[in-house]
Design goal:
Layout (H helix, E strand, L loop, with lengths): L6 E9 L2 E8 L2 E8 L2 H14 L8 E7 L2 E7 L10 H5 L6 H21 L1 E3 L10 H4 L4 H6 L5 E3 L3 E4 L7 E4 L2 E3 L3 H11 L6 E6 L8 E2 L3 E2 L6 E4 H23 L9 H4 L1 H4 L2 E8 L4 E7 L4 H22 L5 H14 L9 H15 L5 H5 L10
Parallel strand pairs: 9-16
Antiparallel strand pairs: 1-2, 2-3, 3-5, 4-5, 6-11, 7-8, 9-10, 11-14, 12-13, 15-16
Helix pairs in contact: 3-10, 7-10, 7-11, 11-12
């Protein structure tokens, strides 16, 4: 008599350069991850060990070096179609009491660990992948933009981005200026300056797909001592721009198990209301609506009020948060996607957002729109 099969393998999923597959084996629910880059796999193994000391993470059951990369096997959390991630709470039409509870748990955990582990660190001692490496010579800023020129928005505003600095920008009624070459140079210089930064032990890439519900942390190749300001900028920009709009638009396969994400893109995608250039007066007029669903606004508001402000009061009392966040937000705008490869409308909005963040009048509160959301009765 044939024995019962004790192995069940789920569909293969692709996340950036990694492959994931769920496996049920002898009553164990596992997640098997194939990572192509051995150095990233080693970073992930080390990051998981670091994070496990302070945060809830699924157990790493096994690791195996294979030709071309690593196979890592984790305990599988109860994540399924449209459930199990912060993303799924954000995909609701209205903020739920569950979302309010989750954000309170998330910010409390982060606040405790950040304030416990915070220290002024030399830049060589922090995780460099998302900011320093991308701004360094030969990094993403160079790979995307060095020696390149492209229109601000082909068919809408055909001015080369290299000439944008010669124009006055009227963006949603605010007079701004954006010198493209000077902005890139400023970011290169900022992340090359050998000044210590406040760092703490965090996961480093706090996206709505890397945060499980119930609360747990996933994906560890950037886990370790991270710039605290960079951590904040990452969550705020991802939640307000990437997670609900750009990432599902350009990497839809990553959301195959969370299809509700696609139903919410329209609620999170900005709209261009007016865009025109006048070459006789060297002015560009851009009016756009920055749309964000109520659950995402709620998450941003909670993160700002319950995490960013309390940590800032302890570490940066009297310091302008706009100056701290500016270079990190600008890097998230420029060094995740290559602006030249995006649709003209997307590029136009992102350049407008870049002009706003680089302005001396940049205000993170109005920029990320952390509006008050009344907490429902619990």
């Amino acid at each position: 008599m044939a024995g019962r099969t004790h192995l069940k393998v789920g569909p293969l999923r692709r996340f950036t350069r990694n492959l994931l597959v769920s496996v049920d084996c002898f009553n164990q629910q596992l997640l098997v991850k194939y990572t192509r880059t051995p150095s990233e796999a080693r970073d992930e193994i080390r990051g998981h060990a670091r994070l496990a000391q302070h945060y809830r993470v699924p157990a790493l059951r096994a690791r195996l070096r294979v030709p071309g990369g690593y196979i890592l096997t984790y305990e599988r959390l109860p994540i399924g179609p449209d459930r199990g991630l912060l993303l799924d709470l954000l995909n609701a039409h209205e903020p739920s009491s569950e979302l309010h509870i989750y954000m309170r748990q998330l910010t409390t955990a982060y606040r405790d660990v950040i304030l416990t582990t915070a220290r002024l660190a030399d830049q060589s001692q922090v995780v460099r992948k998302l900011y320093w490496d991308r701004a360094a010579p030969g990094g993403r800023l160079d790979a995307y933009y060095r020696g390149q020129d492209f229109p601000v928005a082909a068919g809408i505003i055909d001015i080369p981005v290299s000439h944008l600095g010669t124009y006055a920008l009227n963006i949603n009624g605010q007079l701004l200026h954006l010198d493209w070459a000077a902005t890139l140079r400023q970011l290169h210089n900022h992340f090359a300056t050998p000044e210590p930064v406040w760092a703490a032990l965090t996961q480093g890439d706090p996206t709505d797909v890397n945060l499980a519900h119930p609360l747990a942390w996933l994906d560890y190749d950037t886990a370790g001592p991270n710039s605290i300001a960079g951590e904040f900028a990452n969550f705020l920009w991802y939640t307000s721009a990437l997670g609900g709009w750009l990432v599902p638009t350009h990497n839809p396969s990553a959301f195959a198990d969370h299809r509700a994400t696609f139903d919410r893109i329209a609620a999170n995608a900005p709209r261009i209301l007016r865009a025109a250039a006048d070459r006789t007066t060297n002015t560009v007029d851009i009016d756009y609506a920055w749309q964000l669903s109520a659950p995402r606004r709620t998450a941003i508001n909670a993160y700002w009020e319950q995490l960013v402000l309390p940590v800032a009061e302890q570490l940066w009392a009297g310091t302008n948060l706009a100056d701290l966040l500016r270079p990190y937000v600008a890097m998230r705008i420029l060094a995740v996607y290559n602006l030249a490869e995006l649709a003209p409308e997307e590029r136009l909005v992102l350049l407008a957002r870049l002009a706003e963040v680089m302005s001396p009048s940049f205000d993170p509160v109005t920029y990320f729109s952390p509006l008050e959301s009344p907490c429902p009765a619990l």
